[in-house]
Amino acid sequence: xxxxxxxxxxxxxxxxxxxxxxxxxxxxxxxxxxxxxxxxxxxxxxxxxxxxxxxxxxxxxxxxxxxxxxx
Length: 71
Fold this sequence. Notes:
Elements: H1 4-14, E1 19-22, H2 30-39, E2 48-51, H3 57-70
Parallel strand pairs: 1-2
């Protein structure tokens, strides 16, 4: 898929055995796409392998901490 929207739609339609997610998408945050995949009952079970040339570990940890506070 070329865009986040196309990728999310394809994942829900085809339900692949795994997803390779580039964090540097042209139209959306890769972390946002990952969040949408994991909150969708049709795609939450699909393993997601993340690829990026940028280190997003700090942002990912902050999002996890915020999610834990909301739970």
